[in-house]
Input
Amino acid sequence: MIEIKGLSKSFGKKTVVEDVTLKIQAKAITSFIGPNGAGKSTLLSMVSRLLDADTGEVLLDQSDVKKMKSDAFAKRVAILKQANHLNIRLTVRELVSFGRYPYSKGRLNKEDQKFVDQALEYMNLTDMQDKFLDELSGGQKQRAFISMVIAQDTDYILLDEPLNNLDMKHSVQIMKILRKLVDELGKTVVIVLHDINFASVYSDRIVALKDGRLVKDGPTHEIINSDALREVYDMHIPVQVQDGCRICVYFNSHN
Amino acid sequence: MGLKMRLWMLISAVIILSVISLFIGAINIKPSDLLDWESLETQIFLISRLPRLLAIILAGAGMGIAGLIMQSLSRNKFVSPTTAGTLDAAKLGIIISMMFFTSMSYIGQIMFSFAFALIGTFIFMQLLERIKFKDVVFVPLIGIMYGNILGAISTFLAYEGNMLQNVDTFFQGSFTLVVSGRYELLYVAVPAIIIAYIYANKFTVAGMGEDFAKNVGLSYRAVLNIGLVIVAIISTTVILTVGIIPFLGLIVPNLVSLYLGDNLRKTIPHTIFMGAAFLLICDIISRLIVHPFEIPVNTTVAVIGSAIFLIMLFRGKAYAKK
Output
């Protein structure tokens, strides 16, 4: 389990994350939601050690992540930032192979190759494993990166806006895959999401941030209701139930 | 065509070009002359032709690798020792050591120029981190301006010290003066290239960005610094023995990347041989065009290189952006 304790971060005079404390439930999808500039990505970056917190600590199974060795940490937690603009020419298989880097340092043994094969298979990329990343569509590319994270074989998978720039079909595809990772492989997934309805339909828990502070933290059905959402977004968000999914219909809302 | 096949073709090209390179020059040497150990031809062969060939191969391979590492670490296809101030910084270091530390030993001069190349490149990389507008073409333009500022300081110092002409001859990339006893420093590039190959995977991961590198547990800063040291070593040894070879570090890695991608473990061997072949061709042209005299190789490299570079710019901006 990941525990976040009193985490704060400022850039210059601006406080981006302020005294956030929460626990991330294992084997579940937790979505970070909130308005622009709420500090969601910064929080995720601190949890994954990409950024150092000013104060507070992150505990991974009771041990301070800062004190963990970097390759030991890389075997437990994977983070994928918005990677669509990456301009490196690697084949899909090469990229996925780098997911084994914490284990093999680039010299893949038979077991590593097996993990790579499985990760490709899982994301339906086996046929295009020898294609270069720049020959893929946005959705395929995103799948290749997630496949790399699967090959990394970590318990925790952190994703920063994985649906960015994806169309509806590919967004649904990615979210279904994340769901499978939790339900079938027992992973813990934490995502920053902009689209509240994807958060509602696919996540087990929702963490809502606003101006760097934690405003809500609970099971999805407790957060996806008009009263709670007003606190987060300062607007009236009607919620309708459709086929068992709670859908926010905010497009035509009047305060 | 298979990739192994391509590599073998490059290797064969280097071998054939090497043979041609060995047997052209002001004095006509026939292979049969070499049977006589005492002959003038054999002496020329051993003192001049062979060192020259080795120097070309090492310089070509080295500059290719230096460019490849810089492009990977800066994540910009148009960054190279020529377009990031590395060569200009090394040059400034040599001029300062020649002017102000006249009693300095050769080794001291080498270390001095190495330190300048390293610091100069490091400053450019720091600059790169601070600028927000990372357009593919904008970044090397900044590098060229930065290099020109360093170059202006060099020129000013050389002018004040009344050694402008010396400096010009010294840095003119040319293999004319490469004879046995004057090029051995280039062998330092060999371990540098081997280390580059050992670190290939790390450079590739670092080339995907700091966040990406940290995610797989790679210490990004350390890899970046090792890369810069390799680049500085190669650039310094080449500039001190041969002079400035422009464009090669820019073009060769890009040509390889076009068909092979950016996985350094794969591209390093191809870059080595293509760099050597490219410089061999340029040197052979330089020696044949006004035979029995020759023009400096950097002139030929600049003409051919800038032409290829322009084609790359026009056709390849889309590719570099991908």
Q: What stands out?
A: Residues 85-153 of chain A form one domain.
